[in-house]
Write a structure and sequence with these properties.
The chain has 18 helices and no strands. The protein has about 450 residues and is mostly helical.
């Protein structure tokens, strides 16, 4: 009986596999995801070791100072994107406006936002850290990267048409160059200022290359022009996403900022940053799947509600089990990983890593759910659940950091992610179904059921 059941399961698996391979849409998604995963896997493998070399070179104190500046700048980066990513992809897919007008207007809006926020970030860091000139320069350099990243609006076009191969090749090439520059920095004994400049150079190379690739490979020859009507439309739709993006960044990055300001030195920030670098290693896989499935799910929403819901549940399940698998692996090997990568100076990062790794699972599920919120026109709830996460994180950081340092910050972030992405939207009737779907995604039976019915 057991043998028959095993054979039946195997036959079902083969049948599902053949159906996927014969599906043009599925094949395109798999191919696109493969490029995204390959890109991120490549950069992760290089990045983990290069960051480890940099962390060892600078030591916890200087590495902590750099990450304090980086986290402070990140608080403004969320605003600089203006919440345009998902909405712009949707506009290109729906063809509501000319493609050239969509991309040109998005680029101008992001550039203006980047310039204003660079100025604001420079002023604020001088107010809160008046005597740290080195920190002022680091923040200025990193903030200007927001302006350079406005060129990356081409990524919206790439996502809409699932042309991940283009951006993957560009990013892998740029990352190799960036890694070489970072290693040269260590060899020639460079400082934090030079390290920050490498980030700006990397953004400039990627942005310029994307623009060149767009004009070479685009099929739509719409002229690039500013469309005021589209600008008004997109900004009227995106303000929920702008505020929620800011709050997401706050409860993702505020831990580093609060650690840097509440602890007597920046050493704790360096150790904490070493742990979170490893904890986020796996993000590239679910983000590649989410990015590839986004236009497919949006397209299904218009033609087949049942298929749309089924695709969302599949996405949630894949993301949830990726997180579970990586979390179990980290629990078993955190001490070994930290020891090999960062050395004895960062030994305390292992216990922080064992906690912070689980926050990523809920964060990635939140990213997946953003597609559903956009499709259902419920962007306003993004503001609510991110506000909940922000309040939980800041409150717990304020209580736990003085007592537990980086370990307390990790507990605060995990609690915030769980509160924002699991608990917050259960309260509202409009969004309760999404939370139920996310909870179902943790069931092994749900994954098997989806495979059987595919």
């Amino acid at each position: 009986m057991k043998k028959d059941s095993t054979l039946k399961t195997l036959e079902q698996f083969i049948k599902t596999k053949n159906k996927i391979l014969k599906s043009e849409v599925a094949t395109k998604v798999i191919k696109n995801s493969s490029w995204l995963v390959g890109d991120k896997a490549f950069t992760m493998l290089i990045g983990v070791f290069v960051i480890a070399i940099i962390a060892r070179y600078f030591g916890p104190e200087k590495f902590g100072q750099f990450n304090y500046a980086l986290s402070f700048t990140a608080l403004f980066t969320a605003l600089s994107t203006l919440g345009l990513e998902t909405l712009t992809v949707k506009s290109i897919v729906d063809e509501d406006y000319d493609e050239g007008a969509i991309l040109c207007t998005s680029l101008i809006l992001r550039a203006i936002g980047g310039i204003l926020l660079t100025i604001i970030a420079g002023i604020i860091i001088r107010i809160i850290e008046p005597n740290d000139t080195n920190l002022h320069i680091l923040v200025l350099i990193m903030s200007f990267t927001m302006v350079l990243k406005s060129l990356e609006v081409i990524e919206y076009w790439i996502q809409a048409y699932q042309k991940a191969k283009i951006s993957s090749i560009i990013r892998m090439s740029a990352y190799v160059l960036s890694a070489i520059l970072k290693i040269c920095l260590v060899i020639f004994r460079g400082g934090l200022i030079q390290y920050a400049l490498i980030y700006s150079i990397d953004a400039l190379i990627i942005g310029t290359s994307l623009i060149i690739a767009y004009y070479k490979f685009r099929e739509n020859k719409d002229k690039w022009k500013i469309n005021i009507n589209y600008a008004k439309y997109i900004m009227s739709q995106s303000w929920y996403l702008i505020l929620s993006g800011l709050m997401i960044t706050l409860y993702m990055k505020i831990d580093n900022v609060m650690l840097g300001s509440m602890m007597p030195s920046r050493t704790e920030v360096g150790i904490y940053s070493a742990a979170t670098q490893v904890a986020s290693m796996w993000y590239f896989v679910p983000m590649a799947v989410i990015t590839s499935l986004k236009p497919v799910i949006m397209g299904k929403k218009k033609i087949d509600e049942k298929s749309y819901i089924k695709s969302l549940q599949l996405l949630y399940t894949i993301v949830a089990w990726m997180g579970i698998g990586f979390g179990i692996f980290i629990l078993g090997f955190s001490n070994i990983i930290i020891g090999i990568l960062y050395g004895a100076e960062y030994a305390n990062a292992a216990s922080i890593l064992s906690i912070s790794v689980w926050a990523g699972t809920f964060a990635m599920l939140g990213s997946a759910r953003s597609i559903w919120l956009i499709c259902e026109g419920l962007q306003k709830y993004t503001l609510i659940y991110t506000f909940v996460g922000l309040v939980v994180n800041i409150s717990l950081n304020y209580i736990l950091i003085p007592i537990m340092g980086g370990y307390g910050a990790a507990i605060a972030t995990l609690s915030a992610q769980f509160s924002a992405n699991i608990l917050a939207l259960v309260v509202f009737k409009d969004t309760r179904i999404s939370t139920i779907m996310i909870l179902k995604s943790f069931s092994p039976k749900r994954l098997l059921l989806i495979l059987k019915n595919s």
